[in-house]
Amino acid sequence: MPSRPDTIAALASAAGTAALAVIRISGPDAARLARELFPRLPGPRVAQHADYRSQAGVLVDDVVAVWFAGPHSYSGEDALELSCHGNPFIVQRILEDLFARGCRPAGPGEFTQRAFLNGRLDLSQAEAVMDLINARSERALAAANQQLRGALGRRLQDLTDRLLGVLARVEAYIDFPDEDLPPEDRTALQAALEAISRDTDRLLATRRYGDLLRDGIKTVIVGAPNAGKSSLLNRLVGHERAIVSPEPGTTRDFIEERIVVGPHCLRLIDTAGLNPSPGVIEKLGMEKSLERVAKADLILLVLEAGRPLPALPDELTRRLTAQKTIAVINKTDLVPTPSSLKLPPGVKSVLVSALTGHGIENLVNEIVVLADSLQPNDNEDYITINARHADALERARSSLKDAGEKLASNGPAELLASDLRGTLACYGDIIGKVDNERMLDQLFANFCIGK
What we know:
There is one protein chain. The protein has three domains: 8-117, 2-Layer Sandwich (Gyrase A, domain 2); 123-205 and 383-431, Four Helix Bundle (Hemerythrin (Met), subunit A), CATH 1.20.120; 212-372, P-loop containing nucleotide triphosphate hydrolases (Rossmann fold), CATH 3.40.50.300. The chain contains 15 helices and twelve strands. The protein has helices spanning 30-37, 88-100, 110-117, 123-134, 138-148, 151-171, 183-204, 206-215, 229-237, 280-294, 314-317, 360-372, 387-408, 413-431, 437-444, and strands at residues 8-11, 18-26, 48-53, 59-68, 79-86, 104-105, 217-223, 255-261, 264-270, 298-304, 325-330, 348-351. Strand 1 (8-11) and strand 2 (18-26) form a beta hairpin.
């Protein structure tokens, strides 16, 4: 028989001083604790204002208690939630009393892990809990909400159901080794596998956008020394993040700051100036700048109004495409009507003054347009996968390819069925239809305590 789970307790709201704090209790003793602490507690999901008294009968705080009867709770177990005043000393007193009454401290992600193990969430939904907590932009929040509500699970269930249909037809012939698949069945199965492969590829294509949502869009600011790169960073960030000086070459290393622009989170990276005749230290800074450019999702090329286009390194010029570059013509407060510059084909230019703020709103609008274009075209419901999902889908795609080759070469039905079952297992890895305790422990260890 499986061992009886412990009853766990932890602070579920942010640590520190606040108006309110929420303490969560979950497990088989939650019902006993509710009766012991609050004899007049009403039925499930009804809030009750009551005193919290320690085992010694000492008043600790007045709280709002809500009882949740399993399986209709976050964790799928009996649960009790207490809202108390957000004094860390009060929270600690309540937790110490709960531990004295038989609870133990919850580990990182343990409430959500129990929700997964009790069937309240699939594994992709459980991962979405942390994505929701850490979302830094409107798009990231929308994607996390979609995944938390099972959008990825539904997409994978559709792929699984279609693949099961193919597998059933293949296995129907395994008991009849002397019979080959009829040509018409082979053609239909080939078309079905190709459609499943295409949809698997579409999910894989969201991996990069998922990384951008979780980490921010890497937006590198580059240009010649004294073009105003650091002033532009400060203007976009809204405070003096970088040192600004009329002396060229002030920025020797890169500076990074996250900002929200429209529905997107940007990782703004200010880099050292691209001096055609650099000193030793400047050269090292330029090498780091070009390293950042190579990994950039967007590039802001800062140019001085009234000056010709400077000589740029070939490595940078190759990456100045219309799909990821905006030419920012700075210092228009000094040259109100600058002459046009010969820019790479299709690259848009925006006139700004980082000093006065003129044109910054237009620049932000252009950044949003380019950032919008990074989203996959068919990603209407903001489904985005992470690295773990991508690994499983890569393995699924490989198994599908092997299955397609066997089908095309009239290979044995047993081997074809084995490849299809391998693909099903890969889909199952994503939503948690696996028995891998180590993998689950590692995944939930990245959660915060209280979740």
